[in-house]
Write a structure and sequence with these properties.
Layout lengths: L1 E6 L3 H17 L5 E6 L2 H9 L3 H18 L3 E4 L8 H7 L4 E2 L1 H11 L4 E4 L18 E4 L1
Helix pairs in contact: 2-3, 3-4
Length: 141
Amino acid sequence: MHIGIIGGIGPAATDFYYRNLIKAHALANKKFVLTIVHAEVSDVIGNIAANTPGKQAKIFIQLAYRLEASGADVIAISSIAAHFCIAEFIALSPLPIISIIPTLESELKKRGLKKLAYSDIVFQWKPSYLEEFRPLTLLYL
């Protein structure tokens, strides 16, 4: 599988994905094929602040077309914050999207957690996708 990553929004997150994908493929003795495209953090921050997920999704769509042209089979976004436009992006993407949100929700439920603390000191943004994690109590710090 050729994995496409929209990275650069949080370079450390992109690096985390990259290193762990290399490790997982090596352990599974599978060939690793990856393409990373760079998204501008200033676009994401501006669109979060302006609450314009559709505008950000359109930016991601252009990157998705580049990933599709590179031969990618699926796309992941390395930044959790950038998932604020995930619904709009999924609706428009030419390729399937691997989202961290269902995995995060599943892991929270599996661990039996009842509260989730979320901190955003820049925008005091309350991501709508966290609202779906019921019956969790959301604590915005």
